[in-house]
Amino acid sequence: WTEAFFKRESASLAPNLKILLEECPLTTDEAILFPCPLVRRQTAYDPTTWLRDAALFEAIPTDRPRVVVAHGSVQDFGPAAIDDEDLAGAGQPNLIELDRLPVDAIDYVALGDWHGTKEVGRTAWYSGTPELDRFVRGDDHNPGNVLVVTAERGAHPLVEIIRTSDIGWHDMAFDFLAGLSPDHLAERLTPVIGNRANRDLLRLKLSGSLSLGEMRALDGLLEGWDARLLRMKLTREIGLVPTEEERRALTERTTDPLIARVATQLLSKATGDDETAEVARIALRELHVQLHTLNHTA
User: Fold this and answer.
1) Could you report the per-residue pLDDT of 253-283, keeping only the tens digit for each?
2) Is the pTM above the cut of 0.85?
3) Is residue 259 within 8 Å of 270, Cβ to Cβ?
4) How far apart, in whole angstroms, are the C-alpha atoms of residue 3 and residue 10?
5) Which end of the chain is more exposed for a tag (fewer CB within 10 A), N or C?
6) Are 269 and 207 in contact (CB under 8 A)?
7) 3-state class of 208 per DSSP?
């Protein structure tokens, strides 16, 4: 916040931005703010400690709502809910004890740290991030919003959740069971992504088994999706089960005995679960693609 670069860009792009770094009430036209800044990444100090003294509020005007602005974790969240994966399992840093604040003296508590929208007290909310920044972790993790809060002195705040996220983070698992083909995967995924380009991220887990022709079709679909997505995180656990026609086309090539011998060896090695089997399956797919291309250009 003190670097010349930040000050220059802030003055140019957001001249109305004010950084609150002091534990001191700030009176604005609309409200009285009580900043509880977190000035380092981790601390054992509750940033709202300075507000526990009820006498502090006796000299504060009562004509405007009182809004606490703080960053940290609350008791409702266990270690598994910590957003930063590097800190998970290390206990709760930056703990805020809401129940130790003088509730009647405060009209709203605006919290940061948890990346989803969540009500955590009678007057306390996490707004979450206005744009998603990771794959959603659970049903109660609701990022991608802003909160419009109507607060009055001595009244319960009215909170409206407004959706602002434009980037889609999608998590999908698909099992190629008997009768299900890459076309069925496309039918499920296309409505999710639509015609959007460079606006979505996809975590896709594929399982089951496909024939060589279906594998070729799947590779074409994945290539297209990968080009359109901001990122595709793919887990591919698909078994290769060539059809009898595909086996004969590879191993009974009287005009190409070398290819037939290689294909026969690859088929015998592709049935296991080790690395050799996976390499053999990849080689079979590539061989099938090349032969398919030659047949269509001949």
Assistant:
1) 878 888 888 888 888 888 777 888 888 888 8
2) no
3) no
4) 11
5) C
6) no
7) strand
